[in-house]
Design a protein that fits this description.
75% helix, 3 helices, mainly alpha, single chain
């Protein structure tokens, strides 16, 4: 038996936009999780360093190295990845140029 109360499926262009929005949201969530892991790990390393070392601060080195990876991830998601502001500007320019 068919349920006629369901909404009709979205059109192809709407579905494509929805898929892109979902991918973008997933990437932003992954970036947020990456930031949280960096803060937690950095705090843990700082606590271990503060409690266990005798005057030599070593924790900035692994936290900084992790930060480089985080910066690359951030750059990809925000500036260069699919759905980024850069990609949206390029897409708008192409659509304008070709009358789309």
């Amino acid at each position: 038996m068919r349920d006629d109360r369901r909404a009709p499926p979205p059109a192809r262009s709407e579905q494509a936009a929805l898929d892109r929005a979902r991918r973008r949201a997933r990437r932003m969530t992954e970036l947020r999780d990456h930031w949280m892991a960096w803060f937690v790990c950095g705090g843990g390393l700082a606590a271990i360093d503060g409690l266990g070392s005798k005057g030599v601060l070593w924790f900035p080195w692994p936290v900084g190295a992790y930060g480089v990876g985080l910066a690359v991830h951030c750059a990809y998601v925000v500036w260069f990845g699919e759905g980024s502001a850069r990609e949206e500007r390029m897409l708008a320019r192409e659509l304008e140029r070709h009358g789309g």
